[in-house]
Amino acid sequence: MSTDTAADRLRARVSRQGEDALGRLAQELLESPFVSGAISRAFEAREKAAQAQEVAMGALNLPSAGDLERLTRRVRSVSQRLEGVEDALDRIDERFGAMGGAGLGSLEPRLNAIESQLSALAGQLADVAGQLGRPAEPAVPDAPSPAAVAEAAARVAPAERRPSRTRAAATRKRAAARRA
Fold it and tell me: 71-83 burial, b if ≥16 CB within 10 A, otherwise e?
C-alpha cells in the first residue's frame, strides 16, 4: 500500500512540475515580440483571406456567409411578424366565434321586432289623429329593410384596429418632425 501512495505522490509531483514548465514556456512565448508579431500577422492574413473570399464569391454572384447570416436574420424577423399576424387573426376568429348569437345574423329578428313595434305605434298614432279629426302622417316613411339597416350599421361601425409596430413608429416620427 505504501508503494501505491508513493507512486501517486511521485506522479502528482511530476505532473505539477510539467504543468508549471508548460505554463512558463507559454508565458515566455506570448511575451516574445517575435511570436506575438507572428500571431498578429496570421490574424491579419486570415482577415484579408476572408475579404478576398467574399469579393470572389460576390464576383461569381454567390452569397457569402455574411449574406446568408443576414438573410437568415431577415427570414426569422419575417417569421416572427407572420406569427404575430396569425395570432391576431386567431383572436379575431375567436371574437367572431364568441359573437355567434350576437352577430349580424341575430340583428335581423331584433330589427323585425322593432319594425313591428313601430308599425303598431304608427297605427295607434293614426287612431289618435283620427279621434282629433286630423289626418295622420306616416311615422316612418318607407322604412328600409332590416338587411339594409344591418349592412349600413356594419359600414358605419368603427373598425377595431390593433396598431402595428410600423404604424406606431410612423406616428412617432411624424410627432418628432412636428416638434423639430
Answer: eeeeeeeeeeeee
The C-alpha atoms of residue 162 and residue 150 are separated, in whole angstroms, by 24
The answer to whether the CB of 140 falls within 8 A of the CB of 114 is no
Who's near 53: CB < 8 A, 6+ residues apart? 64
Boundaries of domain holding 122: 107-157
- pLDDT tens-digit profile of 98-141? 776 555 566 778 888 899 999 888 888 888 877 877 655 555 55
Q: How far apart are CA 16 and CA 137, in angstroms?
A: 114
Closest CA to 165 of 91, 85, 72, 90: 85
Number of alpha carbons in the 13 Å side-chain half-sphere of residue 110 = 9
Give the chain's domain count: 1
Residue 150 placed within a domain? yes
Q: Are 140 and 122 in contact (CB under 8 A)?
A: yes
CA 52 to CA 35: how far, in whole Å?
26
CA distance 146 to 154: 12
